[in-house]
Design a protein that fits this description.
The structure is a homodimer of 240-residue chains. The first copy, chain A, contains seven helices and seven strands. The first copy, chain A, is of the alpha/beta class. The first copy, chain A, has one domain: YjeF N-terminal domain (Rossmann fold, 3-Layer(aba) Sandwich). In chain A, helix 6 links the parallel strand 3 and strand 4. At the A-B interface, helix 2, helix 3 and helix 4 of A face helix 2, helix 3 and helix 4 of B. Chains A, B: GO terms for molecular function: metal ion binding; NAD(P)HX epimerase activity; nucleotide binding. Chains A, B: Its cofactor is K(+). Chains A, B: It catalyses: (6R)-NADHX = (6S)-NADHX; (6R)-NADPHX = (6S)-NADPHX.
Chain lengths: 240, 240
């Protein structure tokens, strides 16, 4: 299965449509997005592969999706921890934090130390609205994500990658040229940068209507049963 | 598995705690409640048993759970329709309606006619805050639910039943004495009236923390995998 991609600009317009025309609140959309991320984790990295999941959250909605996913993971029996160095200040993120604190999910202060004791990393740092350049502390985090042997699942896009143009150029100033997560979950629809992605690829967003899919010229993936995600195949070299 | 029940009064206090202490918004809780209802439908009445589901929604949050469930059911491939005679006016219910209208889910005006062309009924009329007496048009609807051969899945409680005291007395003025849905999903925890219930019984609410469960002396059911529901067995005579 190969799905059409949505540009960064259209993804922003679609999100706005979901709220203005679609009747969704950000609370609802983030709940559904985070739920699909948690299901992708369960599929890609079942509990038998290790329960410890370090969720790295950025300051915006991608980070919020990570917070929701972490809550569901805690209920599934994982042992999530959160690294959240630049915390979004809005009321929704504050509430998502409280939900995790009430589950005794730790917010850890040191990324390098946390990397030593996890089985999986969820990269919920930046999504479709990412704009260069990376600001501290994220360049250092991306460098560590490039180097670690621990599997990474990225939410919506590998953080540091340009949504349209893919990974930064090798040898340039920006880190991330060799960052290749083992798994990716595209929310709503793949972004153009998946062209450069090699690894397991999931799609979530089982709330799109046909009308919105048509407006943005997207495919509605064929979900199975009650799944909130669908695996759209391993992206590999020959598909580039 | 037998789970402790929560009184009507405690269920209201718990809901308030989830929002005041737990950090949840009503949007989030209703999304998760409706999602579990949709999963109970999928488990109790898979698509192969017939796709048509008539969701009967009451004016409050139980009806809202039904609206969310109907949206998920539409995405699973069911053909839901909604009977919603006393529509809650708050902004959340309005948005949930828009979400369904955008999926072309019909809102039907005539319950008796709708009953002739459905494979399953979801009773999302009244939940834990139900207080007698039933007001029109609900007595007539309950009488039809008592008589129909079409299976009914009730959300949180069989509508018309007293949450503490169970079904109305036979021969009394209130209908519902012989209403016995084939399936029931208790949200968060069973209500005391399950003592009188015979049929398949599911529980949803995979967001409770241990702290809240302890406060209200509840059991946390053992969910499996990524399920949002768990079946707690068929309630039968011998368990009364």
């Amino acid at each position: 299965m190969s799905l059409k991609a949505i540009s960064s600009k259209d993804a922003a317009a679609l999100d706005k449509d979901l709220m203005d025309i679609g009747g969704f609140s950000l609370d609802q959309l983030m709940e559904l997005a985070g739920l699909s991320v948690s299901q992708a984790v369960y599929r890609f990295h079942p509990l038998t592969k290790g329960k410890r999941v370090l969720v790295v959250c950025g300051p915006g909605n991608n980070g919020g999706d990570g917070l929701v996913a972490a809550r569901h993971l805690a209920h599934y029996g994982y042992a999530p921890s959160i690294y959240y160095p630049k915390q979004g200040k809005n009321e929704l993120y504050e509430r998502l934090k409280i939900q995790l604190q009430n589950l005794q999910v730790p917010f850890v202060p040191d990324f390098t130390a946390a990397l030593q004791s996890t089985d999986l990393i969820v990269d919920a740092i930046f999504g479709f609205s990412f704009q260069k350049p990376l600001r501290e502390p994220f360049p250092s985090i991306i460098r560590q994500l490039e180097e670690t042997k621990i599997p990474v699942l990225s939410v919506d896009a590998p953080s540091s990658w340009d949504i349209q143009e893919g990974p930064p150029k090798a040898g340039g100033e920006e880190p991330g040229a060799t960052f290749m997560p083992a798994a990716l979950i595209s929310l709503t629809a793949p972004k153009p940068c998946v062209k450069w992605y090699k690894g397991r690829h999931f799609v979530g967003g089982r709330f799109l209507t046909k009308e919105i899919a048509d407006k943005y010229d997207l495919d509605l993936p064929e979900y199975s049963g009650i799944d909130q995600i669908v695996e759209v195949g391993v992206n590999a070299d020959e598909k580039l």
